[in-house]
Amino acid sequence: MILKQMRSLGMKQRVFGSYRTLGPTLLADAGPAAEGFEAVFPYDPTRKDPRWTEFQSRFAKRFGEQPEQFASLAYDAMNQLLDSICEAGLNRARIHDALAQIGSYNGVTGHMVYDPNLKNVSPMYLGDVHDGAITYRLERIEKQQTTPSTSAGIAAQQPAKPAEPYAYLPEVPVSFAGPAGPDSPVGPIRVVIFGRGATAAAHRASVAAAIPSGWELLPIDSGQNWGVAATELVQGLMEQHALAIVAMDRDAAHLSAQLALKSFVPVVAITDDRTLTSTNVPWVFRLPASTSPEAALKVLKLAELKSGANPDRLRSVLASGEHFGKQFFAVNGEPGKPQM
């Protein structure tokens, strides 16, 4: 109806929509007014690979119609859940861990790739209405050559590989990092060390005298049950009022970044994964994967001497471009070139 009203008023702007708008109903209801309409779509429903066409046939035989996008995506999601239940047994924590181990999955809708936060980062498609039909082409956020597909389908489709990184956004400083928070409670300054082998890393830091006087490390091992580890991390931030997080690896860094956005606590992430900083999360400061936890703690110690026990001021000092020994951070949280 909206498309018809727009065209009747002489409006010729390009119109974009979400994937729920694409399908036979759009063509039937909007008619010629749908010409040029575009919408993102999570897969190519016109492809002819056997996994997809067999699912279409089974679905149509049982329900008397072709599967729309919600039925197709739900089928893939449920199969991943059932596979995890069969692997883990009837234990919610183990089921959660089994789901977290799905790095990629070949479903009826195509090849899915998951990042450490269990987000499907496979490229999306763009559906376009032209001459009464919908065509789909592969689209990426970053500029890469796309693979066109017509309504007649394609003979075969290679599994989509995840882009590294999967998003390119302007890496400029943000003007608002979040509300100004209070100082940490009176008492020891607590810093979370999160990652595989966190307890051993905290012990090494203690032996190497890398822990300042008045500091307390909260080691949380991500190698344990992932649900338990996430719960301990939340408790460290919300109940024990940790000043900062040192994330020891890529997976730990991604979960820490999510919580940093909710708790407004800076994260020093030891990883070579630049996707952490390419999305302008102003609470994440990346160090190369070769950096030791002791070196990351030294950076935090030097920054805290200038900021005091306040997460917001600590973030501001880390983002200021000041040097902490040989290390400093660019405005986007990327590591600057160490001084020699």
From TrEMBL:
Gene3D superfamilies assigned: 3.40.50.2300
Stretch forming the signal peptide: none
Domain Leucine-binding protein: 2-132
Keywords assigned by UniProt, alphabetized: Receptor, Signal
Species in which this protein is naturally found: mine drainage metagenome
Coiled coil location: none
Protein's name according to its UniProt entry: Extracellular ligand-binding receptor
SUPFAM superfamilies in the cross-refs: Periplasmic binding protein-like I
